[in-house]
Amino acid sequence: MNGFQGAPRVRELVSRTVQAAGGNPRFREKGQAAAYTLGEAVSTEWLIAALPLLTQAGADLPPVHATGTKGQDLRASLHARLRAGRILGAGDKMTFETVAQSDLTAPRPTQTDAQSAAEKSRQARGLLGAGVLNADEFRLNQLMANGGGSGSATGVSASGAGSMPLHKPKFASVLVQFTLDVRVVARVTDRVRSSRTAVAKRELTLPQPVVVRIPLPVARRLLAAHPEAVTDARDHLGAAAAGP
């Protein structure tokens, strides 16, 4: 809601991580196709749209290749964690679009047809030392989907059919400010000798917080379940925060 201001820092983090993994200068130098592709993959617009996915399981950036006598293949992934939440105030009633889930603990079925591939990708990142930054923290899509009453028989049926069941519940909104941590994992492989692979991992806390708009029921649940992680010091939600 406050405009994502950390994209240049995230791109710089990606560049430093690739360099730490022994990446070719072509991945960083201006005018190089590899550097351009990598930079475009981490645009401000993409970071805003992908934030729920990044906090949930991370996202793989497009594979990038550097040609030349020392050709390399680069695969990188980006992960995020929201912490130190602070309620800024209640807002207008609005429609939230969420992806349905079969139950409260189910994984978020973004593109259900590719769910198994996503799980394999998550396991691969774990083997590479990436992990999931927020294993015990907040997951935006999961919380919002649950708030939308998405555990319906219709949602389960559609999910099983390989579609993407969407819910569009209408709730009063709440603005919440979070500190955002970002982790980049880069894997660089020699194109001639594939056995030569190096992995690097770097983390960064963005100096500017992010402000997200979430449904009021989700804000209530966060305050009740994580009082040490999400605060409402000025009691913006009032008695609503203590409601059922």
Structure write-up:
By secondary structure, the protein is α+β, with helices and mostly antiparallel strands. It is built from 7 helices and 9 strands. It has helices at about 5-20, 35-40, 45-55, 115-125, 140-145, 155-160, 215-225, and strands spanning about 60, 65, 70-95, 100, 165, 170-190, 195-205, 210-215, 230. Strands 1, 2, 3, 6, 7, 8 and 9 form a 7-stranded mixed beta sheet that branches. A hairpin with a 6-residue loop joins strand 6 and strand 7. The longest helix is centred in the N-terminal third of the chain and has 14 residues, at about 5-20. It is elongated and about 65 Å long.
In short:
The chain is an alpha+beta fold and 244 residues long. It contains 7 helices and 9 strands; from the N terminus they run H-H-H-E-E-E-E-H-H-H-E-E-E-E-H-E.
- Give the number of DSSP strands: 9
| End-to-end CA span | 27 Å
User: Which spans have pLDDT < 50 for at least 5 consecutive residues?
Assistant: 101-138, 145-163
Count of individual helical segments: 7
- Secondary structure category: alpha+beta
What is the residue-mean pLDDT, rounded to a whole number? Answer: 75
List SSEs in N-to-C order. HHHEEEEHHHEEEEHE
